[in-house]
Write a structure and sequence with these properties.
about 110 residues, mainly beta, 4-stranded antiparallel β-sheet, 10 strands
Length: about 110
């Protein structure tokens, strides 16, 4: 079973940036698509960014133009560059294939203050 470990979260002011990383203990390159998900307090988990094995990108409307997903298959790592953060981006962020396949990791908390 592949373990997913997210990191890079923290507390940032509105307008700031963060870069999240997701390290997989096993290969993720065989999956067609890998994504970043987030879950705000009291809300359902939502998919915010997806990258296919061929590099095709998709974003939720709420983050389009501000977030950038990338992957390094050699390092079994997926990244999420988040710019122009706003308080609505506050959530725990997770990675997983799309659709989700592995057990969810602990995620990384992102808190954006106004």
């Amino acid at each position: 079973q592949v373990q997913l470990v997210e990191s890079g979260g923290g507390l940032v002011q509105a307008g700031g940036s963060l870069r999240l990383s997701c390290a997989a203990s096993g290969t993720i390159s065989s999956y067609n698509a890998v994504g970043w998900y987030r879950q705000a307090l009291g809300k359902r988990r939502e998919l915010v960014a997806t990258i296919s094995s061929g590099g095709r990108l998709n974003y939720a409307d709420s983050v389009k133009g501000r977030f950038t997903i990338s992957r390094d298959n050699a390092k079994n790592t997926v990244y999420l560059q988040m710019n122009s953060l706003n308080p609505e981006d506050t959530a725990v962020y997770y990675c997983n294939p799309v659709p989700p396949y592995y057990n969810w990791g602990q995620g990384t908390q992102v808190t954006v203050s106004s």
